[in-house]
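Hi all, a correction to my earlier message: I attached the wrong file for SIAH-type domain-containing protein. Here's the right sequence:
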Amino acid sequence: MHPGESKMRTNRKTARKAAAPVAPRKKKNAFMNRDKEGHGNKIWIDPDALSVECAICFTPFEAEVFMCKNGHAACAKCCVRINRKCWCCGKPIGDMRCRPLENVLAEMNTHCRFSKYGCTEVVKYIDKSRHEEACPRAPSGCPVDGCTYRGLLLYKHLLDEHSDAVVFVANNLPATTTTLLSLHKSAPFRVLVLERATDAGEGEGSVFLLLNGGGVLSGRSLSLVRLGAGDVEFGYKMEVRGSEPGVLSLERTAPRVRELEGFEAKMFLFVPDASWAPTDRVSVSIRIG
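and the right structure:
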């Protein structure tokens, strides 16, 4: 074979190899999940994908997504918050729905962000926020100042690490039995643990916070909240006695919260400044259940 002919064949092989289509590399956290036959059956998303979050509040889009004429998207709440003026280009926003994105979101599935704490739920992306608000596997942070604990065993953690900072309340007692404690005006809350809660396992209990809030003129606002998971509702009755004659009382159902940050009590007992004088303390009796 002539040396030139051999060189031409080599060049042809190299050209064919270069022209051959290259299969695209699979991306990490691919959007399409394939079944055994290779057909797409579920649409998944990377929970960290910013393209499906509102660019203003950075929370996942829900069923309704709005856009301006230039295609900048925002959730309904943010459209109101920015006075229906696009944060990016200044065009009106809030009248035009982004239907294609809404259709994609409606078919997307994802895992609960508390999967590392044991939640195995697969939820629609547009229902993600609602699920996580009520997820029974969501961890709770320790309310004691300086403590970094965050997990599912808050009751046990408080008993093991902060027993001197909590008030114990026995459960299933007669209705006339109450727990009495002293509350200082500057204390933002007191931690209460209720033993043998009806919705917990053997030896477990529930954690409550007696909140001593500001935000009111000439006094303080007292309320009770429950920390952590659980579907059972707990009613409570609170009575406050201070330096002024008479008794202030409140009887409600304790709302359940994950974290104190951003929480504002809708119902509370107003305790005027005169009741705290001269020791800056009041006596609080509480009955839970």
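Sorry for the mix-up. The longest helix spans residues 3-19.
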